[in-house]
Amino acid sequence: MRVWNSIISWKKGKLFLWFFMSYTLILIIPIGIISYIVFGKLLGTLEEETIKSNITIINQARDTIDMNLKQLDQIAFELSNNTSIYEFTSSRETDVVEANIKLKSIIRDINISSANVTKSLSETIVIYSLKNDIFVSNATKYEPEFFYDTYMRNVSLPYPDWISQVKSVSGRQFWPSVNTVGASKMGQKIITYLQPLTQYGISNHAILISLLPEDKIWNFFGRGEMDAKSYRAILDKDNKLISSAPDSTEPVKVNYAEIFQSGRDHMFFKYNGKKYIAISTVSQVFGWKYVTILPVIVLMEKISYLNILFSIALLICILLGLSLSYVFSVQNYKPISSTLQWIMINRKDRTVKQRGEYETILSNIQGMHTENHRLEDQLHKQLPVLKVHFLLRLMKNNTIDTGELNELLAFYTISFPYASYMVAVVSIDDFSGFVGKETVAGKSRARFVVCNVGEDMVNWAGRGFALEIEEDKVALLINRDADSEIPEDHTLDGMLRKLRDFLSTKFNIEISIGVGNRYSNLEMIHQSYNEAMIALNDGLIRGRSVINHFEQTRRNSNQFNYPPEKENQLIVCVKTGDSAAVESLLTQIYVINFVERKLSTEMVNCLLYSIVSTSFRILEEIQLDYRDIFDEETDVFQEINHSKDVEAIFTKIQLVFGRLCGLINAKKAKGNVQMRESLIQYMLGYYSDKELSLAKTADYFSMSPPYLSTFFKQQTGYNFTDYLNRLRIQQAKELLADEKHTIQEIAHRIGYNSANTFIRIFKKYESVTPGQYKESCRVGVASETSETFSAG
Description:
By secondary structure, the chain is an alpha+beta fold.
């Protein structure tokens, strides 16, 4: 009776009855559907679906492995019919120079043929020439025993037995997985693929060998929750084990012949009193047999768990459903009341409540909708600037994943109609004929002209954008078809020549252009940008008004690679004392110029002198005596003039730069405390400046922003922006205690451009809005929502 009276008295019973009836129906309908339809069918089909799922997984893995192994066969076919390989392996080369030339050609051909398969399945593909007794990979050549020690060495098969078996291969073979202890594959299990190379049915005395990591094979099967409770294996056509999954259980004794001869994809059997299911499939291409053996009790765990869970849930619904329906109905009005109360407290106009609660909520929602439209209008005004920043980010780095990229392209309404992307970087060599005098404003005008004319040219021949990247450089992001079937003046080179000639003729602006490679994937556009910068710098060496492609720089084997960007990066790392980064950069320079390239003696000396000159430049900038670095042990100039051991010279150069880093770190340690105090005093004096930023502070103290950011974090425990916000909020709390200041005034006094920004940041650090804090000060209650922050 008490419950019924409550129902009658609650808003005349209408709203509560609707809630109560709704919750009751929500209880009855799902219980009826689950009991009558879902549960009746679920138990009967779950076992079948689980088996089908495992069969699908194993079949998909089989097809994927077959496809990759077919690629190995295709590579063997291509290499068998490769003339260079046939000539090299069919006769023993005695001329070392001629042999090396042929080896370079073979390495390139192997690299081209195996480019795709090495990413997905095989890590190493080599050709063994029986007559020349040498292994050749897509990177280099190996002596047989060295190759064995590097990749294949294992305790069960010593080198003499292994090389004997390799030489005796007469047809395609798969050697079972073995645990290698070679220098390159330590502790890795490898399956070996071997295929003799023949041309027109005649052996060319060579064998293709591919090393298939066992973990890559099993990665095709994916990760399942029952993998650790099952035994999974791959057998050859004679039912001999090739590989078993690393996370499998102990093998179960089973008659594999019976499994595969049954013609079924799964079969139940018993072993040691337990019931098992064997799920199997056979490759019709290579004869590999795949089998998964799983205890039936594990398969039924899901079904048993769901059965128990459903019974408990059904019982709970029956016992508590009606009472919860009543409780939920009573509580359903509370969000409406809370919402209305929040609106009345936080609304700006403080007007009286509308005729009804729903009307009040509706009117405020409409107001928020209007405010959202206003914010959207502001966003649309900033959209062009945001679009430029997005394109610059896309072009300069590769941190945008595919999902985020597609969302941002849709947000900025950017579409690329062609599946071909590349970047050309335009350098403004001379604009004095355009503005008369080289000034900052004149350079900006010239850059503006190049941007607009460049974008028009790109869109005339396809689709693209022009972006300002530096004071004298503009990047052209180009999306267009390949140049194969279009007129000469519409090709990429034709378009770039037209751009160069038009700017020179109409505006007296001289430009040079570097062009990156073309890519079919937008995510690789940063690579084309880097290539374009390299091509531009390479072209500027030869003169002005040039159009240089990245491919041209790769063909130029008599030029060392030490661009200004790399030198500046090296200088910055030395000045920051980052010895690890300096060593890494020097190693990169060494590999690029002395491992990947074959430079003449003159070019080697030029490069080494350039690097040493960089050290003198650093010494001059940091005002150190060269005698602190160079001594009799590091007489680099004498080494360059008299020694031909480039590695030894480079080691001494690394020693010089290591000493530089050590001196700089020692020098920095003395000034850290004083610099930290100077930074804090500077922020205390200028925190009210709306333009105060990390970049501005770094410029004031003659530092780079990244270095200042790292230094500040190390010395104070806060990053720069966090420290500045805390300092401003601390000052704001003192001003809020004085009622004569408005929120807007306080926001501008402490350095924020708008009250909205101030309110958002204040609430982030204090967990209340400035208005709420001011109200608490008015009634004498001090805010204790965050820890006290003391500047310095």
